[in-house]
Write a structure and sequence with these properties.
Layout lengths: L7 E6 L7 E3 L5 E4 L4 E5 L5 E6 L9 E3 L5 E5 L4 E6 L4 E7 L9 E6 L5 E5 L9 E5 L5 E5 L6 E6 L5 E7 L2 E7 L10 E5 L3 E7 L5 E7 L2 E6 L3 E7 L13 E3 L5 E6 L4 E6 L11
Antiparallel strand pairs: 1-24, 2-3, 3-4, 4-5, 6-7, 7-8, 8-9, 10-11, 11-12, 12-13, 14-15, 15-16, 16-17, 18-19, 19-20, 20-21, 22-23, 23-24
Length: 280
């Protein structure tokens, strides 16, 4: 089903070029800014800044932990943080080392065994991106180099057997199985994506929501129907560089995303139902 501009609600305005978004364990929406800000947004549309990184940083992927903290990807400081937004405390979760140099840490997700996988996009159009796995014991190692072309958004599959990964240049959606020992299996190409895809969100019954930095489009993909436009906006008004999406609201059917180019957060009530996101 293709949605129209009138179906989109402006949930909040005034966020600083937000890309990262997640649903916290408290049910609120959290977003990152490009100067080290973290915002909290209620489903009623109340927006507040709840944390800020001293010295600044561009905050990309956000992931909620069970204890209420957030894992945050920061390509400026080339690290991942664990942030307690209630006390504005920032603890390094992963940083560059001699054995693993981070370039552009971008987006992450927990796996069923409690480990955490995140994309490092590398340098733009340099085909040097990779995926990193953080084991529950804190050990960090490269997980896969099968998606080198600016690996961006990723998401755990509905059955937990693998992850979907977007590459942005050129646009490509792939699936990487998780093997029994936690290592990565052989990359399986799902489909090509026009433009610059940024985020992928999993819905029930095999549907994937794919948001694009360019053009101003959100797609839906399924095995039976392939890639279709969910909503698009050639004028860049209600859909304007939608970077990443989440599901929330009643029945987990409200699709919420930050419009990077408009400094606002949009909401669309859909017929799709998002899956619960793992937290540890």
């Amino acid at each position: 089903m293709k949605y129209q501009h009138d179906d989109v609600v402006n949930l909040a305005s005034g966020i600083d070029h937000s890309e990262g978004i997640c649903k916290g364990v408290d049910g609120n929406v959290y977003l990152g800014g490009e100067a080290g800000q973290i915002y909290r947004l209620t489903l009623e549309g109340n927006l507040s800044q709840v944390a800020h990184l001293e010295g600044g940083g561009i905050l990309l992927g956000l992931t909620a932990c069970l204890d209420g903290r957030l894992i945050v990807c920061d390509p400026v400081n080339k690290c991942l943080w664990k942030v307690d937004v209630e006390h504005n405390t920032w603890e390094v979760f992963v940083k560059s080392s001699k054995s693993l140099e981070l370039i552009t840490p971008n987006w992450g997700a927990f796996l069923p065994d409690g480990s955490y996988v995140f994309s490092d996009s590398g340098n733009w159009k340099s085909a040097d991106g990779f995926l990193v796995r953080v084991l529950p014991n804190g050990e960090v190692k490269k997980w896969s180099e099968a998606c080198p072309d600016f690996p961006n958004g990723l998401a755990l599959s509905e059955d937990g057997s693998g992850i979907y990964v977007l590459e942005s240049t050129p646009g490509l959606l792939s699936y990487i199985p998780i093997l029994s020992d936690g290592s990565s299996g052989t990359k399986q190409i799902v489909c090509e994506i026009p433009g610059v895809p940024d985020g992928v969100t999993v819905a029930k019954n095999g549907y994937l929501i794919i948001s694009c930095y360019r053009p101003d489009t959100i797609y839906v993909w399924s095995k039976d129907e392939g890639l279709e436009v969910l909503i698009e906006d050639p004028e860049g008004t209600v859909v304007a560089a939608p970077t990443n999406t989440i599901f929330s609201g009643q029945g987990n059917r409200d699709l919420i995303w930050p419009n990077f180019a408009r400094w606002n957060v949009a909401k669309l009530e859909t017929s799709y139902e998002g899956i619960p996101i793992l937290s540890f």
